[in-house]
Amino acid sequence: MTESFLSTRHPFLTEAKNSSSAEPDHAETPVGEVVETSLTGFVAHTYKLDEPPPFGGLVRVRDRGGATEIFGAVYHIATGGLDPGRRAATRGTGLPAQNDEQIYIDNPQLARLLKTEFGVLVLGCSRPHTGSRRSFSYVFPDYPPPLHYSVTLCSDQTLVEFTEDKSYLRAILEAPQVPAEELIAAVLRRATRAREAAGRMFLVDSLRYLARNLKQDYDRFKIIVEKCEGVQ
Amino acid sequence: MMYDQTRRKPEKFLGVITAGSLAKGVEARIRTLTPLEKIQTGQFVAVECEGVRFFGLLTDVTLGATSDSVLLDPPYPGDSGSALLREVLHGVYTYGDAHIQPSLSLQNGEDQPRPVRSVPSHFAPVFIAEESDFQQVFGLENIAENGHKFAVGQPLDMDIDVCLDLERFVERSNGIFGKSGTGKSVLTRLILSGLIRANTCSNLVFDMHNEYGSVTKGEYSNQQIKGLRDLFGSRVMVYAVRDRRPGDKAREQRATVADGDIVIGMNHIDVEDILLLRNELQLNATAAESAYILQNKFGDRWMETLLDMDGEALKEFCENNGANSNSITALKRKLGAIARMPFVEKNHRSLRVIDDMVAALAAGRHVIVQFGGSDDLLSYMLVANIITRSIHKKYKELTERYKRTQQAQDEPRRVMITIEEAHKFLTPEVAGQTIFGTIAREMRKYYVTLLVVDQRPSSIDSEVLSQIGTRIVALINDERDIDAVFTGVSGSAGLKTVLASLDSRQQALLLGHASPMPVVIRTRPFDEIFYRAITHGQSSIPAFVRPSNGNGHSDTEGEDDGRESFDEWVKKQDEIQLEKDKADLFG
Ligand SMILES: Nc1ncnc2c1ncn2[C@@H]1O[C@H](COP(=O)(O)OP(=O)(O)OP(=O)(O)O)[C@@H](O)[C@H]1O
Ligand SMILES: [Mg+2]
Predict the structure, then answer these.
(1) Range of the domain at B407
(2) Residues B301-348: pLDDT tens digits?
(3) Mean pLDDT over all residues of chain B?
(4) Does B439 lie in the same domain as B353?
(5) Do B477 and B507 share a domain, yes or no?
(6) Which of B341, B311, B316 is nearest to B329 (CA)?
(7) Does A143 touch chain B if contact means CB atoms closer than 8 Å?
(8) Nearest Cβ partner of B92 from A212, A219, A222?
(9) Given B80, B83, B92, which is nearest A211 (Cβ)?
(10) CATH number of the domain where residue B181 is located
C-alpha cells in the first residue's frame, strides 16, 4: 500500500525511490530543475519523463549562496507536450491485448517531445548549519530558489526532521490554489510512515495541531482526518 | 521553605487555570494527553504561580466542546476515521475542565500555608499533589514524640500519611458522619486512640453498642477490633450501667469487668431528661407542662411522689394545681417504664459513681460508659443526659474557679464527650433545652466539647451543626444528610460531589478546624500494626484512685458512707486555695 497511488502512475518509480531512501542524505539524487520561480513556490521539470517526486513529497533546492536550502512540498504534477501549443495524440491500437508500456518502447522520441513538470509549495528553509544538526525555520527564504537549480527529493531522515515542528502545516492551510486537505494528508502519511513505530504519535500530535488551527472549521478538519485514517 | 516549580514531575501535570473565582473555585483546562477517565474527584492538587503555591481539592470534571458542529456530527464508532478523530479531537475541540476549590496558599519564603485570599492567575500550571505537598500541608505524625499530629489515613492514590492536628481537634466540638457500616465507630475508636495517646484531652464515651471498651468482632473474617481498654489499660476506665437489680439472679453477670456500676436515683431525673425522651415515650406537650408543675411543687422528689400517688391523690393534686388529670395520668404511666429500668432506684441517692467518673476525667483518665449490650435507646439517652448534666455542672464550677485563681494548675482538663446516635440528643426540638445542645453551643468555654457520631445528620439541629469544628464524613447518600453535613461550610458545592464519590467503606472526607484543608482519605486500618504503633513506648500507669480517699468504687452503700462527695472535695480545694491566696497577700 505504501506506494499505491504512485505505482498506478509509474511502475518503475517504486524501485528508484526505495533505493534512494536507503542511502544517506548526501547521496540523494536530483529529480528535476527549476523552470519557474517565486518566493511562495516554484515549478520544475523532471530530468526524466514521468519520474517526478511524489505528491506530498518533500523536496529541496539550494539558494544561490549555497548556505541555505529551500524546502517545499510537491502539490502538483503534470505531463504533457513540451510545446505548450501541442497536445499528445493517441498512439495505441485500442485492442484488448495491448500493453500500454509498449507504446513508450516503440516510440522512444516521446521522451524528447513530452515533459513532466511538478509544482512545489515553499514551506521553509534550513538555517546555516550549527553543529551537526540541521535546523529549520518555517518562513519564506530571502530570495526565491534560482532558476535552473536542481531539485532534490529529501530522504526519510530529512522528512522526519523537517516535520518535527508542526508550523509547516499552517503554511499549507493558508496557501491559495493548492489542494490543501489532500496535500496535508499526503505529507502526513509520508511523514508518519517514515517514523515507523513512532508514527502514530506523530500523526495524533500533528492532527491536534491542525485542530487548534481549524477551530472554526470542523468539517474541513474532519476531511483531513478521514484522509489520514488507516496510514501505516 | 523555598520551592522549586521545575522539580515537579511532568506526568503529574494536569492542566492550566483558565477561569474561576475565590468563592466558586477555579477551572483548569485539562492537559490534552491526560485521559479524563484517569482523573478522580477528591484529588489534592497544587497550582504553581509566580511566588505563590496554591493547594486545593479537585471537586469535579466537566466535559466541553469548542464547537457545536463537533457535537452535531460526533464521530460514531465504526465511522471512517472515528477512532483517530476521537483521539485527536480530545484536548482541542473537546476537552475536560477540572474544577478546583483552592484552600491554602504558600508564599515563597514562608513555610506555613495559609487560607487563601486570592486566586491563581490565568494559565498557572496545575499539578496532582506529590508527597512533599502533603507533608507541607498536613505535617508528619509525631504523637509518639509527644506531638499532636496524628495520622488518620492516606490519600486515595498515594502511600503517605494525612495528619489531623489533635490539639486543634479538641478545641471545638466535632462530628463523624456516614451511613451505616461505613466505619464511623472504628474511625471514632481510631481518633480516640490518638487523643488518648497524645493526651490532649480526657474522653468520656457513651458506648451504646458496647464496642469501645474491649475487643469486638469486625465484619471481615476473623477480624478482631481491640477496645480502648485493651490498648491503654488503666488509662481507660469502664463504667457500666447496672443491668440487673441486686439479688436478681435471673440475669447473667456481665462479661466485662467494670470499674463501677452506674445507678441513678429518681431524685436525679430531671424534667429535662424526660423532655429529651419525649419522642421515645410518646409524651405530648401538656405532659411536659404537667411535669414542670410537679417539679415546682415537689422539687427533686417529683417523680417519686407522682409514682406513689393513687387515683385519689392524683385527682386532688390536679384540682389544687390546675393540672390536666389525663395528661398527669399518662405521664405517670410512661414514667413507670423508667422506674422499672434496672439502674433506676426509687431511693434518694448520691451521684457518687458519677462524681468518681468526673474526678477521673479531671485527673486525665478516660471513661467509657457501657450499656449492658442491649440496644436500649431509652436508657442510653437517659443515662447519657444525666451524666453529662452533672459533668457540665462540675466543669462550670471548675472553670469559674480557674477564672478566679488564674493558676495554671487549676486550668480544667479538657473533656470530649463521644455520643453515638447523636441526633437523638440534638434534634431541633430538644437541642434548645438539653445539655448536649448547650455544650455544642457554648463550645469550649467550659472545657467540655462533643464528638458526635451519627448516621442521620439531617436530624441534628442546624445551629449545633454550624458549631462543629472538624467534620469527618464517610459516604452518605441521602440528600438532606449531605446538605446537613455541610451546614456552615463555605464552598461546599464541590465537596458534595466529592462526598458522593466515596467508597462505601473506610474512606472519608476530612474538613474543618483540625485539617488545614479538605482532603479525602482512606482511613487508617485499625489493626495489629496500628495497635503496636499507638502503644509503642507508652508507660503503664497505676489504677486510678480518687483524690480524696482510697475506698475503691462501690455504689451499693447508702448515702453516708463517710466519703466526701466531689462537691465537698472541690469546696475544700477552694478553701485551701483561699488560704494560700491570703498567705500570699498578707505574708
Ligand atoms: N479503619 C478500619 N480498620 C479496620 N476495619 C474497619 C475500619 N473501618 C471499618 N472497618 C470495618 O467495617 C466494619 C463496619 O465499621 P463500623 O462498625 O465502624 O461502621 P459504622 O459506620 O459505625 O456502622 P453503624 O452505623 O452500623 O454503627 C467494621 O466492623 C470493620 O470490619
Ligand atoms: Mg457504629
Answers:
(1) 162-263+348-534
(2) 899 999 998 888 888 888 888 888 888 888 999 899 888 888 888 876
(3) 85
(4) yes
(5) yes
(6) B311
(7) no
(8) A212
(9) B92
(10) 3.40.50.300
